[in-house]
Amino acid sequence: MNLFEKQLSSERVYEGGFLSVRKDKVALPDGKAATREYIVHPGAVAILALTPQRELVLERQFRYPAGREFIEIPAGKIDPGEAPELTARRELLEETGYRSDNWVYLGTAHPCIGYSNEKISYYVAQDLMLSERQLDEGEFLEVMTQPLEAAMEMVLTGEICDSKSIVGLHWLGAYLGGRMRGVPI
């Protein structure tokens, strides 16, 4: 069965400093036309950072669109022309003050397929070394560590409830348990 939708026209309806919104006219598989509105996102990375004591580095920060604080794994958007693995290294250092020479790429997930082209690349950073945080201007967050088992339990209790972190912790468990292969970088 052909499910492909062919773009007939595309219009940028909003351009912000970080995101843009497009409104496209598409041809459906049955030949009829439809409109698709979606957010264009530059892409992001998420980091599953493990200390030498096997504790997971987490962040607590306020997320304005949701109107509340969340506990999350470190993450950040990819700058134009930047390779995702370099973004991961940069974001880990900027947000947490940790760096690592032991990195593994786990995979890429698409968190908002109904309304955005955003994709998140997941990385494991192990054997962390503490350095100095370099937060971006206007960025406020608290860094904490939790034993890996406790972080996994925080997902089950709803204390960690953002999809990026839930996917990341699921994949980390699979990777550490030998059920998922990563690519060393």
TrEMBL record:
The keyword Hydrolase applies. PANTHER family: NUDIX HYDROLASE DOMAIN-CONTAINING PROTEIN, UDP/ADP-SUGAR PYROPHOSPHATASE. It comes from Chromobacterium paludis. Keywords: Hydrolase. The keyword Hydrolase applies. Residues 39-168 form the Nudix hydrolase domain. Belongs to the Nudix hydrolase family. NudK subfamily. One of its GO terms (molecular function) is pyrophosphatase activity. It catalyses: GDP-alpha-D-mannose + H2O = alpha-D-mannose 1-phosphate + GMP + 2 H(+). This is GDP-mannose pyrophosphatase. It holds the Pfam family NUDIX. Its cofactor is Mg(2+). GO terms for biological process: nucleoside phosphate metabolic process; ribose phosphate metabolic process. GO terms for cellular component: cytosol.
